[in-house]
């Protein structure tokens, strides 16, 4: 498989004299609901399976330094933990807020049942490193490229290591898909890091700072590599692909999806809502942009949740599926139709669970109250998902 190029700055490390290659495993955790098979099937309707790129970039750096590296995305497939517990020397967990609780669970499991050294990184450990350190041996704050090898090989042993941002993004190696062990159909391309604006609710513009762009040539070289590797689908996953309109036109693509305002820790909105008592949950699993986690000013949390479901139905409707089919081809149209159906079933399912499943029946009566809406809906789905997962871990 084609490899990304490797800049001097990052490759120039050697294994410690006499040091033997380590078995390094990267896991991007997913919440119980997202590991539940019906959700994974639904995900296929939503789009081609894809992978977060951080572990593929960092794993590639470690592989080229001589280590044995495997990367797993829990979102896309079950992971055989029995075998990983036996062989893993270093476990690297990549967590966003909603997946941090699962990351902590995995870290505890590896501490209990294996000899692995556990390192955490990604969006959530970057914002709350002390919280992550209650479970991990080391936490890397920020971008990992410049420090990952030193941390893994033990030259940096402090509990919290701060990774400096890479100034010239063209020096970052391309993600290495040869180490990814879970299925993937689409390659993700990020032509920038961060965003020139700093909306008060936005975590990425704070994590990836300053805003940087790759050169168009470098992006095109990556796209060519994926074509050679046989990828039929690419996603542009920039946070604000149109920040530079001319450049966006040059590269040519963007995508949107509905989301609920989520006050992520580390953002001014979180501070503000926290200080004024408007946060209604600190259950990080709910921080996935699909659950209301705060008290809105002019309606109840549940009313906002319902409006989100309604917006989803308008966004993914059958007419727009036709237009998308015409613009982007039959397959995209078919997927969009599937998504329209799935969204409608999902909304119905959420109401059904809330109305009929034990523990949730009362939600309508409490709709104008201050409780967390998903704490009434989700338990039904989560109980089922939790049961299924427990029988397999
Ligand atoms: C691609 C992507 C996806 C893909 C794949 C993700 C996956 N399989 O988990 C898809 C579309 C499936 C997805 C889904 C979701 N996503 Co998403 N996603 C992204 C996106 C756009 C790009 C990720 C990426 O490749 N970044 C670029 C690389 C270079 O960064 P990175 O992976 O974070 O890695 C760097 C550092 O974090 C660090 N690092 C990372 N991992 C590790 C591990 C170790 C051990 C170390 C040391 C360092 C380290 O070093 C890396 C290199 O510098 C980001 C936005 C962003 N700009 O990051 C949102 C983002 C991560 N997603 C987000 C969200 C909310 C979600 C969903 C919950 C959305 C939803 N409603 O379903 C789901 C959850 C999926 C899950 N796993 O459960 C939020 C998370 C916010 C937060 N604070 O938690 C983000 C930040 C978007 C946003 N603007 O808010 N996502
Ligand atoms: S990425 Fe979007 S939300 Fe974040 S600062 Fe930029 S424009 Fe605002």
> From N to C, what is the helix and strand string?
HEHHHEHEHEHHEHEEEHEHEHHHHHH
What's the CATH H-level homologous superfamily of the largest domain? Cobalamin-binding domain
Mean pLDDT: 83
Described by strand count, sense and barrel closure, the largest sheet is:
6 strands, parallel
Enumerate how many helices there are, as a single number: 17
Radius of gyration from the alpha-carbon trace, in angstroms: 21 Å
User: Strand-residue fraction?
Assistant: 5-15%
CATH class (first level) name of the largest domain? Alpha Beta
Distance between the termini: 32 Å
CATH topology of the largest domain: Rossmann fold
| Shape, per Cα inertia axes | globular
Label the CATH architecture of the largest domain: 3-Layer(aba) Sandwich
Q: Report the uncertain regions.
A: 1-15, 358-382, 384-393
> Based on helices, strands and strand pairing, what is the structural class?
alpha/beta
For the secondary structure, the number of strands is: 10
Oligomerization status of the protein chains: single chain
Question: Which bin fits the share of residues in helices?
Answer: 40-55%
Number of domains: 2
Which small compounds were modeled alongside the protein?
Answer: cobalamin, iron/sulfur cluster
Strand order of the largest sheet: 2-1-3-4-5-6
How would you describe this structure to a colleague?
- Mean pLDDT is about 85; it is low at about 1-15, about 360-380 and about 385-393.
- Strands 2-1-3-4-5-6 form a six-stranded parallel sheet, with helices on both faces. Strands 7-10 form a two-stranded parallel sheet.
- It has helices spanning about 10, 30-35, 35-45, 55-65, 80-85, 100-115, 125, 130-135, 150, 205, 215-230, 245-250, 270-275, 300-315, 320-330, 330-355, 375-390, and strands at about 25-30, 70-75, 90-95, 115-120, 140, 160-165, 185-190, 190-195, 210-215, 235.
- It folds into two domains: about 1-255, Cobalamin-binding domain (Rossmann fold); about 290-390.
- The protein contains 17 helices and ten strands.
- The relative contact order is 0.11.
- By secondary structure, the protein is α/β, with parallel strands linked by helices.
- Helix 14 packs antiparallel against helix 16 (about 330-355) and helix 16 (about 330-355) crosses helix 17.
């Amino acid at each position: 498989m084609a490899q990304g190029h490797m800049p001097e700055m990052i490759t120039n490390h050697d294994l410690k004299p006499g040091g033997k290659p380590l078995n390094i495993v990267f896991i991007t955790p997913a919440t119980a609901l997202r590991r539940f098979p019906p959700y994974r099937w639904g995900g296929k309707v939503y789009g081609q399976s894809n992978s977060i790129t951080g572990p593929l970039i960092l794993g590639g750096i470690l592989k080229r330094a001589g280590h044995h590296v495997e990367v797993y995305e829990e979102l896309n497939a079950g992971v055989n933990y029995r075998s990983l517990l036996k062989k893993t020397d270093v476990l690297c967990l990549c967590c966003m807020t909603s997946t941090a609780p699962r990351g902590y669970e995995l870290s505890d499991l590896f501490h209990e049942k294996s000899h692995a050294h556990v390192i955490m990184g990604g969006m959530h450990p970057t914002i709350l490193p002390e919280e992550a350190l209650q479970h991990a041996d080391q936490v890397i704050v920020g971008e990992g490229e410049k420090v990952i090898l030193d941390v893994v090989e033990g030259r940096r042993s402090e509990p919290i290591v701060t990774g400096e941002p890479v100034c010239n993004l063209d020096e970052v190696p391309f993600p290495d898909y040869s180490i990814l062990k879970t299925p993937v159909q689409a390659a993700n391309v990020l032509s920038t890091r961060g965003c020139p604006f700093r909306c008060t609710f936005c975590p990425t513009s704070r994590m990836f700072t300053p805003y940087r762009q790759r050169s168009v040539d470098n992006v095109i070289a990556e796209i060519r590599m994926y074509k050679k590797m046989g990828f039929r689908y690419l996603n542009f996953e920039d946070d604000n692909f149109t920040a530079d309109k001319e450049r966006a036109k040059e590269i040519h693509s963007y995508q949107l999806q509905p989301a609920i305002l989520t006050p992520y820790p580390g953002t001014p909105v979180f501070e503000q809502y926290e200080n004024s008592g408007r946060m209604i949950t600190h259950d990080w699993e709910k921080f996935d942009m699909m659950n209301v986690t705060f008290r809105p000013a002019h309606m109840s949390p549940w009313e906002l949740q319902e409006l989100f479901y309604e917006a989803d139905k308008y966004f993914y409707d059958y007419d727009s599926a036709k237009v998308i089919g015409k613009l982007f081809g039959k397959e995209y149209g078919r997927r969009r139709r599937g998504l329209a159906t799935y969204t409608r079933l999902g909304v119905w399912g959420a109401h059904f669970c809330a109305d009929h499943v034990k523990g949730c029946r009362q939600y309508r009566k409490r709709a104008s109250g201050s409780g967390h809406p998903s704490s009434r809906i989700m338990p039904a789905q989560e109980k089922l998902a939790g049961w299924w997962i427990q029988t397999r871990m």
